[in-house]
Design a protein that fits this description.
Radius of gyration: 19 Å
Number of strands: 14
Shape: globular
Bound molecules: manganese (II) ion
CATH superfamily: Putative cyclase
Number of domains: 1
Distance between the termini: 20 Å
CATH topology: Glucose Oxidase, domain 1
């Protein structure tokens, strides 16, 4: 049997599970909030064109209003100033969008420290147990933050000192960009950087280093708890928005059971 026949029979038999890592997209989907003077993205919205009525008697359809970086989405390199001449989201080669993924789970540390930052030591410890990070694959960071994803306030977790959400240390971001063979980093939070990363040096190191290296970000992922540490295959399908800096993305994981 060919490998694709085995794949489809495995999916229908349930020996390969398709896990949806995507948050539902609605006007309730949490979005990033930047402080003044920075411009912000819009909330997702539907604008009805017709619904089996005078405007279109047999059909229902909507216009959608959305930012590129709304809900579960992919950051293309060109999103950041460190990759101004990098690929836009339509230029990402499709074979890069089907890739192995590993899950590094720091949810126990995040439970007691909402500002927890993944360290290079965490990554080295993980590699000692599970082997090297996958060449051409994703590092998915599990923090447990997806439990908050239905509630904008809990998801952004901001107080008078700014947002408090977990992320990646400056050193780990540089290591993932420059040393690790991964194509990108996926997270459960609103962006790939920690809530406090506006005051890091450099600011927003994951965006700065990872996108600057021509790699990608995936954000607002869900259900990473259903993935094994190694062995999943992720299909990330952003819209090919010409000139786009990112796109809402359906992210599916194939997992052998
Ligand atoms: Mn983004």
């Amino acid at each position: 049997m060919g490998v694709l026949s085995e794949l489809v029979s495995g999916i229908s038999a349930g020996t390969i599970e398709v896990v949806d890592l995507t948050a539902p997209l609605s006007s309730e989907t949490p979005i990033l909030k930047l402080p003044p003077p920075f411009a912000d993205t819009i909330t997702f919205g539907l604008e009805e064109i017709s619904r089996y009525d005078d405007r279109g008697p047999a059909w229902y359809w909507n216009n959608i209003h959305t930012g590129e970086h709304t809900g579960t989405h992919l950051d293309a390199p060109i999103h950041w100033v460190t990759a101004k001449d990098g690929d836009d989201v339509s230029q990402i080669r499709p074979q890069r969008l089907v890739a192995p993924a590993v899950v590094v789970d720091v949810s126990d540390r995040v439970a007691s420290d909402h500002d927890y930052l993944l360290t290079v030591d965490d990554l080295r410890d993980w590699e000692r147990s599970h082997g090297p990070l996958p060449a051409g694959g994703w590092l998915l960071l599990r923090t447990g933050w997806d439990a908050r994803s239905a509630d904008q306030q809990a998801f952004l977790n901001a107080d008078e000192t700014g947002p408090h959400t977990p992320g990646i240390s400056v050193e780990a971001a540089r290591w993932l960009a420059e040393e690790a063979p991964v194509i990108g980093v996926g997270v459960e939070t609103v962006g790939t950087d920690a809530g406090a990363a506006h005051s890091f040096d450099p600011p927003f190191p994951c965006h700065s280093f990872v996108l600057g290296a021509g790699k990608y970000g995936l954000t607002q992922l869900q259900n990473l708890r259903l993935l094994p540490p190694t062995g999943a295959v992720v299909i990330a399908a952003p819209l090919p928005i010409v000139g786009g800096s990112g796109s809402p993305t359906r992210v599916l994981a194939l997992v052998e059971r």
